[in-house]
Every structure is written in structure tokens, then in C-alpha cells.
TrEMBL record:
Membrane topology: Peripheral membrane protein
Stretches that traverse the bilayer: 21-51
Keywords: Cell membrane, Decarboxylase, Lipid biosynthesis, Lipid metabolism, Lyase, Membrane, Phospholipid biosynthesis, Phospholipid metabolism, Pyruvate, Transmembrane, Transmembrane helix, Zymogen
Active site residues according to the UniProt entry: S188
Highest rank taxon of the organism: Bacteria
Protein name, entry field: Phosphatidylserine decarboxylase proenzyme
Annotated site location: Cleavage (non-hydrolytic): G187, S188
Chain's role: Catalyzes the formation of phosphatidylethanolamine (PtdEtn) from phosphatidylserine (PtdSer).
Annotated pathway: Phospholipid metabolism; phosphatidylethanolamine biosynthesis; phosphatidylethanolamine from CDP-diacylglycerol: step 2/2
Gene (UniProt): psd
The keyword Membrane belongs to this UniProt entry's keyword annotation: yes
Compartments reported by the entry: Cell membrane
Organism: Puniceibacterium antarcticum
Length: 230
């Protein structure tokens, strides 16, 4: 791997407009006062870094559920999937991945299948790490039908800083495990509702890599892991 590839990651097209705006402002700031220009340049570099879209090596074994987002596991608890998806009203295990402003914010499918439903709901912009953010915040919910007939729900949740949820797919789309399906700008959270009887193989506080870290295994009878990463 070239050193350039280590430090310079591809940028998602969603970020081009923002980087251009930051760069233009930086030029104006340089004309006003050099130190301000350097601050603007630093923010431009950060903006590019925020919208990075690195390649990921996704596990290919059947049955693996992969993290849909970079970040840290903030919650693992039983919860009913969003009503707007029309899924069962029985509680499922919800695993929440919190993304800060330094994480890569491209969202990836936790498992392959067919997107059977997408539902957007406006809401508040509370801190995405809070439990009530799942209910009160702006969100975009997806239901993925797997080959075996089971379903998994993925919910993009806007946060205190995030003000724009972007979804790249539509109902009927066939998506592969680790495939890009969306992006949330400037800090947010992803909730995954595991199928009934499937236990998470992660712990609260664990760092996740979208498209790579195994979240759960449909074929495993291993019990839910206890504890908290310190």
C-alpha cells in the first residue's frame, strides 16, 4: 500500500460541495488575515476528513451481521422497531452505534437482502448518545428482508450536530452486506434491530468499523456478551 493511500482516503461525493465552500471561505479569510486563513484551511481539511469514504474488507460468511457504522456501541437493549416500518411490535434487541464528528459517516448495510421499506420521520436534534434520541430525534428507518425470510431494521438518527440524513437506496433495492446505503452529516447514531433470538456479539463501549466488525451471527447460539469495554 502506498503511503499516500494510508493518509489520503477517497471522499464521498456528498462532501464535495462542503469542501468547496470551506475552501472558498478559507481564501477569503487569507485575504483578511493570514492566521484566520490557516484556521479556515484546517477546517477545510477536517471537512474532507469527515466525508472520507475508505474501502472496507467485509466478511463474506453467510449469516454474519456487520456494523453499519463507525463509532462506539452506546446502548444494547430490548426495544420495539419503529412503527412506521410495519414490523412486529414485539421487542427486539437494539444495538446502537454512536458516531462522533471524527468518525467516517458513510453507513453500510449490516447484512445483504432486499430493502422492503424505508420511512423518514422528522424530529428533534437531541444528543444522539441519549436513549430517548431513538424516539424523539429525526430518523430514517430501513427494513431489510433477508434470504431466509427474516427481517432486520436499521435506523439512521440525526444528532445534536447532524442536521441532514442522506439515504442512497429505495424500496426494492437489493443490497450486499457492507454495501453503502446512506450518510449522516456531522455526528449521529445508527440503531440495528436484530432478528428475534439473535444475540449481539459486542459490548457497550466497543469500537466498531462499518462494513467490517461483526455485530452478531445468525448461525451462532452463543449467549449475549456481558460487560462493558473500558
Amino acid at each position: 500500500m502506498k503511503m499516500r493511500d494510508t493518509f489520503i482516503k477517497p471522499m464521498h461525493p456528498e462532501g464535495r460541495r462542503f469542501v468547496a465552500i470551506f475552501a472558498a471561505i478559507s481564501l477569503v479569510l487569507f485575504l483578511i488575515w493570514d492566521p484566520l486563513g490557516w484556521v479556515g484551511l484546517g477546517l477545510t481539511v477536517w471537512c474532507y476528513y469527515f466525508f472520507r469514504d475508505p474501502q472496507r474488507t467485509t466478511p463474506t460468511r453467510a449469516g454474519l451481521i456487520i456494523s453499519p457504522a463507525d463509532g462506539v456501541i452506546s446502548l444494547i437493549e430490548p426495544a420495539v422497531p419503529p412503527a412506521e416500518l410495519g414490523m412486529s411490535d414485539a421487542p427486539l434487541t437494539r444495538v446502537s452505534v454512536f458516531m462522533n464528528v471524527f468518525n467516517c459517516h458513510v453507513n453500510r448495510a449490516p447484512i445483504g437482502g432486499r430493502i422492503s421499506a424505508i420511512a423518514y420521520r422528522p424530529g428533534k436534534f437531541l444528543n444522539a448518545s441519549l436513549d430517548k434520541a431513538s424516539e424523539d430525534n429525526e430518523r430514517n428507518s430501513l427494513c431489510i428482508d433477508m434470504a431466509d425470510g427474516r427481517q432486520i431494521a436499521v435506523v439512521q438518527i440525526a444528532g445534536l450536530v447532524a442536521r441532514r440524513i442522506v439515504c442512497f437506496v429505495t424500496p426494492g433495492t437489493e443490497i450486499a452486506t457492507g454495501g453503502r446505503f446512506g450518510l449522516i452529516r456531522f455526528g449521529s447514531r445508527l440503531d440495528v434491530y436484530l432478528p428475534d433470538g439473535v444475540a449481539p456479539l459486542v459490548s457497550i463501549g466497543q469500537t466498531m468499523v462499518a462494513g467490517e466488525t461483526v455485530l452478531a451471527d445468525l448461525t451462532s447460539d452463543e449467549p449475549r456478551r456481558s460487560g462493558r469495554t473500558g
